[in-house]
Design brief:
heterodimer, A: 578 residues, Ubiquitin-like (UB roll), Alpha-Beta Plaits, Rossmann fold, 3 domains, B: 431 residues, alpha/beta, de novo design (two linked rop proteins), 5-stranded mixed beta sheet, 17 helices, globular
């Protein structure tokens, strides 16, 4: 490949062809400011703070939208550029509430960072910050249109990655608003609450609903026995909240940190994940043996579940009735654990630490109270966990590693990989293979279902019969699979679908700065966790064996049916005719 | 209405035609001879002739028409479109509507020639929503041309097929910008797209598309008939041909004039427009519509030529010339234009959306005697940001027009600030 030579601030440099000026400059240590740019999105060139000088061009050019060409002479710093960028930032600020101190993004706002970098000391324009109503209609997300800088990153991910098409850039001129159709609330449209919009928002215009106060109230209540569960993917992402590199495995520190917060027991959603495999795996076998609806599709991802309920309600029979690991954990914590520990379920308070905004919605679904009380009481995203730990003054870096509590803290490598796309499939295959064939699976790694390809397919030999499986992540890819199923073109037996790109490690509640590159690092870390564990198959977990022996009896048994399986709802917004 | 130094030098021959002319009338003046002639030769001959003629786009950007056609022709994709941009939204511009009402067949013949040159089988005329009569006339003219075998399948039996459809805009000024126009035709919001890819590679529905202004396309038949060298005898070596000028404001004879390139703006006002009404003097002239510049009388000796105008910072644009006599207020004029742009901005990019918001407030305050020179300096800075960094021509042009008024008529801004400064001083003394 021939390199492209060009001049960057008077210095002759070369880069591989096809790069934008913004990307090329980055390789040579020049960070060009940007707001609407996102490495995984199409070029929008809206915000104009990335403008640079290119010799021969009368006006400044947007470096995000301009490809480097041979011999190009680029200047990224000049009086003209500085004045322009400062002016644009000032203009944005004049239309932005001056609430930085009390903003949820205080500390990680991209706009505020640029204002600091560019030394904005005074906003000379007339303040024109709007005071529009804030959308608090969902348990997952808060949309504050007053803080929106109209960069379009949220709408881009909503339309072109998730293909859910909820957020639009409506109207024109100073009336431009990024919002759902006709200015509706998120609860009134088919939003699945995946939170990918919140994950890419550079400011505080759309963010997770903050449930920290609820958790503090529970922790402060001496009559409550407060237990916490941590989702698989959080252990490889939470460290980023404290400045560590993406993909840092921080399981032990995370457990220690949660104990410091005052939780009575620190448990692991991985336990719930192992149980999910037992139930879902046997459900698959049951469907195979009893001519049930196939392909069976996983139901761990609440964004995905809400998506199929809205968009393919007639296909709900494909969805596994197994609850997600979070909800299985909640139901078991308030029954099995309560019994074991001699506690009244009403006195137990279950907090989940999740990579996900849709999990907040899932925990509040009316049917998620099979234990007799609410199965999961509060859900914090990874970002909220970072904040609550900072509030408690927990110094993450100096913590000594600790272990999860028994018995709901014991788990296998199969559960750990739930956090990566393909992980549930792989975990299920590890168990299903051994149940069907009755022989030991020597190579537990199903690498065909790993990786960041949007749709992955594999064929597995189960005691002589070939089984075709598929894995999709990101709802745009889910739609592809669903269209195949809807039109009868899918010959899959089992399908895993995760709402977010990369799976839970790319969830809408994960630390800011999640890009596909970061997703890959987090995925790699999860497979390391799996590899390092002595047990890598869910059915081999001693905690699972004990659970079935002492409490549940059989997978798909009567108790399982009551506590661990659920029903779905047609949420179609299409008007019925007649 | 039309005055030319030499009748033979006219491209549009507007005086020959009444409103709603018949095809036969057009043909009696040699209409459609060019198309017959071109189809006897290979399509590239059309492009060569236009390149020799030095025809440049008349919509405002003045890009070489021959080169643009070549860029469309160079694509391997065979499905191509041509679009006639008749959105004519530039305030003070009324040339395209005149061509459509008085000489629709010359436009249609021009489109057919362009389509033949680039190998397009389908053309659209994007006519602004506010031109219902023009839409009607064009629709009837298309039907007449089709009935005569001059549009449709196998035109004139030469094996070339091409048809034209009217597409009505929906009232947005910005949809005159070619990529916003494409988005609007595709049913999307009328907002500009990132370039590259240019419409010549990736235009309507992702296909190579030639987009030209009405006046540009209507130039083509005469150039093909009489040759590129003849065309170069009109105008100047830098800017061959003629230009339609929409002359309005405080002149005696407002109207549409076809003038050869190379004459001065003063000549346009005095010789075509008959000078200023009631013997008053010129205060300023707005050249190129709302997105053009405001210049004082001493700039009027600049010749109407792309190169010399460019050197003086004058944008010929669509060819609108609006004359203001001594009674007019520059600030009121600027206010009007900023309000226009603020209404028409699509709101996509920050400098345009927020810059115009602030500019609007400052000018409003200036007129209300509530602005200081600090505000004027801010206005200048916002204006520069729009000019330098806006996404598309709208924001950049809004900047241009403001900058020119600040440059030439700063005294009016200063005068408006004096009131406020005195007021503030009084407050200070009494405080």
């Amino acid at each position: 490949m021939n390199l492209v030579r060009f001049e960057l601030n008077g210095q002759a440099v070369e880069v591989s062809p096809g790069l934008s000026i913004l990307e090329a400059a980055k390789q040579y240590g020049i960070k060009i400011p940007s707001l609407c740019h996102h490495p995984d999105q199409r070029v929008k060139a809206n915000c104009r703070v990335c403008v640079v000088e290119v010799e021969g061009q009368r006006n400044l050019v947007a470096s995000c939208a301009t490809t480097v060409t041979e011999g190009m002479k680029v200047r990224t710093n000049s009086p003209k550029i500085r004045e322009t960028v400062q002016t644009i930032l000032e203009l944005i600020f004049a239309n932005h509430p001056q609430e930085c101190l009390t903003c949820v993004r205080n500390g990680n706002c991209e706009l505020r960072q640029l204002a600091a970098d560019y030394g904005i000391r005074e906003i000379k324009g007339e303040m024109a910050a709007p005071s529009l109503p804030i959308d608090m209609s969902t348990p997952s997300l808060v949309r504050n249109p007053n803080k929106c800088i109209k960069c379009g990153r949220c709408a881009e991910v909503c339309h072109h990655v998730q293909e859910t098409g909820i957020l639009y850039s409506n109207y024109r001129s100073i009336d431009v608003a990024v919002e759902p159709e006709f200015g509706k609330n998120l609860s009134e449209v088919a939003c699945v609450l995946c939170g990918q919009c919140a994950s890419v928002c550079p400011v505080g215009a759309i963010h997770e609903r903050d449930d920290i106060a609820k958790v503090w109230a529970a922790l402060d209540d001496l009559n409550k026995h407060v237990v916490v569960q941590v989702a698989p993917s959080v252990r490889v992402s939470v460290a980023e909240e404290f400045g560590y590199a993406p993909g840092t495995i921080a399981t032990g520190k995370l457990v220690a940190a949660l104990r410091k917060l005052g939780f009575d027991r620190v448990f692991d959603t991985d336990f719930g994940a192992d149980v999910t495999i037992m139930e879902e795996g046997h459900e698959l076998l049951h469907r195979l043996n009893n001519a049930g609806v196939l392909p069976m599709i996983t139901s761990c991802s609440p964004g995905w579940v809400k998506y199929i309920e809205h968009n393919y309600p007639e296909q709900l029979g494909h969805l596994s009735t197994a609850k997600s690991p979070q909800q299985m954990f909640g139901a078991l914590a308030k029954t099995y654990y309560a019994k074991k520990a001699g506690l009244d379920p009403a006195d137990i308070y279950v907090v989940s630490i999740m990579p996900c905004t849709a999990k907040k919605f899932e925990s509040q679904r009316p049917e998620m109270s099979d234990s007799g009380v609410r199965d999961v009481d509060a859900v914090l995203t990874t970002r909220e966990l970072g904040r609550i730990l900072k509030q408690a003054g927990v110094e993450f870096s100096v913590l000594t590693e600790e272990q999860f509590d028994d018995p709901l803290g014991i788990s296998t490598g199969a559960a750990a990989i739930f956090g990566a796309t393909g992980g549930v499939m792989e975990a299920a295959l590890r168990t299903v293979y051994e149940v069907v064939t009755g022989s030991e699976l020597t190579n537990v790694e199903f690498t065909q279902v790993r990786g960041m390809d949007g749709v992955k397919e594999a064929e597995i030999d189960l005691a002589g019969s070939k089984v075709k499986v598929a894995v999709a992540h990101g709802l745009g890819n889910a739609r592809k699979i669903m269209e195949l199923i809807k039109t009868g073109q899918a010959d899959y037996t089992f399908v895993e679908i995760m709402a977010c790109p990369g799976g839970c490690i790319g969830g809408g509640g994960q630390p800011y700065g999640t890009t596909n590159a970061v997703r890959r690092q987090r995925i790699a870390a999860l497979y390391q966790v799996d590899e390092a564990l002595p047990l890598r198959k869910s059915h081999e977990s001693p905690a699972v064996i004990e659970l079935y022996k002492d409490f549940l009896g059989q997978p798909l048994g009567e108790v399982s049916h009551k506590l661990l399986h659920t029903k779905y709802k047609n949420r179609s917004l299409r008007k019925l005719k007649g | 209405m039309t005055v030319l130094h030499n009748k033979n030098d006219s491209i549009f021959r507007l005086s020959l035609f009444q409103e709603f002319p018949t095809l036969m009338h057009y043909q009696s003046f040699g209409g459609y001879e060019a198309l017959g002639k071109a189809m006897n030769e290979c399509p590239t001959k059309v492009i060569d002739t236009l390149t020799t003629a030095g025809l440049r786009g008349r919509g405002g950007a003045a890009f070489s028409t021959g080169l643009k056609m070549q860029m469309v022709l160079n694509n391997t994709e065979q499905e191509r479109y041509i679009i006639c941009n008749a959105d004519e939204g530039e305030p003070g511009t009324f040339k395209d509507r005149f061509i459509m009402t008085h000489n629709p067949f010359q436009l249609l013949e021009g489109m057919s020639l362009a389509a033949y040159a680039v190998g397009a089988a389908k053309g659209f005329i994007y006519i602004r929503h506010e031109y219902p009569e023009e839409q009607d006339i064009m629709r009837h003219s298309i039907a007449a041309a089709r009935a005569a075998g001059l549009l449709g399948e196998n035109i004139l039996g030469k094996g070339f097929s091409f048809d034209v459809e009217i597409f009505s805009g929906a009232g947005s000024y910005l949809c005159g910008e070619e990529t916003a126009l494409l988005s609007s035709m595709e049913g999307k919001k009328g907002r500009p797209r990132v370039k590259p890819p240019y419409p010549t590679q990736c235009g309507l529905w992702g296909k190579p598309t030639l987009i030209n202004n009405v006046e540009t396309l209507a130039n083509i038949p005469m150039i093909i008939s009489r040759g590129g060298d003849w065309y170069r005898t009109l105008g100047t070596p830098d800017s061959p041909g003629t230009k339609l000028i929409s002359l309005s404001g405080d002149v005696v004879e407002r109207g549409l004039y076809e003038v050869p390139f190379g004459i001065t703006f003063r000549q346009i006002i005095d010789e075509y427009g008959g000078g200023i009404k009631d013997g008053r003097s010129i205060k300023a002239v707005n050249i190129g519509g709302a997105s053009g510049v405001v210049v004082p009388p001493w700039e009027l000796d600049c010749t109407l030529e792309y190169h010399s105008c460019n050197e003086r910072g004058i944008t010929i644009g669509s060819g609108a010339v609006f004359v203001m006599d001594e009674r007019r207020s520059i600030l009121a004029n600027v206010h009007n234009r900023v309000e226009f742009f603020l209404h028409e901005s699509c709101g996509k990019c920050t400098p345009c959306r927020e810059g115009l918001r602030q500019a609007g407030r400052i000018i409003h305050n200036l007129l209300a005697g509530k602005a200081s020179m600090d505000d004027v300096e801010n206005l200048e800075r916002y204006t520069r940001a729009m000019q330098n960094a806006a996404f598309c021509g709208l924001g950049q042009a809004a900047g241009n027009s403001l900058i020119s008024s600040l440059h030439y008529f700063r005294s009016e801004y200063e005068a408006a600030c004096v009131v406020y400064d005195q007021h503030c001083k009084r407050e200070e003394i009494t405080a």
